[in-house]
Amino acid sequence: MLPSLSATLLRSAGVSLRRAAAPSVGAVRNLNLHEYQSSRIMAEGGVNVPFGIAATTVEGAVAAAAEIGDDEVVIKAQILAGGRGLGTFKSGLQGGVHIIKTSEVAEYAEKMLGGTLVTKQSGPEGKPVNTILLAKKMALAREFYFAIMMDRVSGGPLIIACSEGGTSIEDLAESSPEKIIKVPVNPVVGLTDTDIEQVIDGLNSSGDRTAAAGQIKALYDVFVNRDCSMVEVNPLAEDAEGNLLAADAKIGFDDNASFRQKDVFEQRDLSQEDPREVAAGKWDLNYIGLDGNIGCMVNGAGLAMSTMDIISLKGGSPANFLDVGGSATTEQVKAAFEVITSDSGVKAILVNIFGGIMKCDVIAQGIIEASRELNLTVPVIVRLEGTNVELGKKLLEESGLKLITADDLEDAAVKAVAAI
């Protein structure tokens, strides 16, 4: 997964994308950190970063600016979405990044903290700003783009660099893809001098090449040593002396690394995540909220995608993707219903289970218990097939609940649309 770089960028840069086989058991999630957190990790790894202090209160922001000690500072809203500089607060304030006088810090902190910033990547609902970063204003001569992420085609890390940065890399990929270079790194050999030289040439850095090489190497070491799925610096800047500086920082991690990066995963900011996805994650459920009105509970990512497709084909609109996996328990099924029904836009629920490892009677029991405990008022359409299907259907029939059963997936989709 590429949490901060669009597929458009990779396609335009000539990187082939393939749909990965989605997991059938367990959820795959990725942790993203705020800029101030990412900068701290980069600095610990030897990367040049501007001096900055995070603040969660107006008083803290004023104190941070005083510690920086300059007439002007950079104030940055901290949200887990790109495009902050061009974003808009719902209060009307334009931009989530400003260069301001130190005397204006209290005014801007008051406007930003507790607000909601809407950017190109946040979606129309925006993201809450609970933290701001006060950073030292740097005299930057040039701005580049730099990122490292995993590439399925080359089977290892891929460095993406561009001689232009500080703005939307997706837009640049559309207009001038030839300016973007990509350097695959052999994960066994590691980053070589040749790889580094290619990156420096692609950036067209004018400073000392040895110093630049040291910064590229430090960024790569952070990527490897911290089990990152992505390291993105936009802009990777060059000061008047030609020194490279990570003027912005964004790092992502695969949750498989949580057991050995405990200090990183303790920094997770749940306020930036969909609460439904957070709740689903506690039960190892794969959930993604959508904007439709038919809730879906399915076992298997492929079947879930097919279910969403046929709902759309029959004139409906899926409210979510939810894969309970191949070995869900009754408790997980009940939790899945809780997550689905927490969306006020859901007007019907379609349960589509093909029992292999998953047993239909377990699903049926979960449906019955959830219906009774949650006092469901929306229609529930159930299609069961596979292991213990007859027992599952019998349990549903004898439950006394007003459940709508379906013979096959098409029948289920038709009934779900008609039930709204």
Would you kindly provide a written description of the structure presented here, covering whatever features stand out?
Helices cover 34% and strands 25% of the residues. It is an alpha+beta fold. The longest helix is centred in the middle third of the chain and has 17 residues, at 209-225. It is elongated, with a radius of gyration of 25 Å.
Summarize the structure.
The protein has 420 residues and is an alpha+beta fold.
Structural class: alpha+beta
For this structure, the quaternary state is: single chain
Strand content: 15-25%
| Termini Cα gap | 34 Å
Please tell me what the overall shape is: elongated
Give me the count of strands.
20
Average per-residue pLDDT, rounded, comes to 90
Instruction: Quickly count the helices.
Output: 14
Major pleated sheet: 7 strands, antiparallel
Q: Could you list the spans in which at least 5 consecutive residues all have pLDDT below 50? A: 1-28
Percent helix, as a range, is: 25-40%
Rg measurement, Å: 25 Å
Give the arrangement of secondary structure elements.
Elements (H helix, E strand, L loop, with lengths): L6 H6 L17 E3 L2 H10 L7 E4 L2 H11 L3 E6 L10 E2 L7 E5 L3 H8 L3 E3 L8 E2 L3 E5 L3 E12 L4 E7 L6 H7 L4 E5 L8 H11 L5 H17 L2 E12 L4 E3 L3 E5 L7 H4 L9 H8 L3 E4 L4 E5 L2 H13 L6 E4 L6 H12 L6 E8 L4 H15 L5 E7 L2 H10 L5 E2 L3 H11 L1
Parallel strand pairs: 16-18, 18-19, 19-20
Antiparallel strand pairs: 1-14, 2-8, 3-5, 3-8, 4-6, 6-7, 9-10, 9-12, 10-11, 12-13, 12-14, 15-17
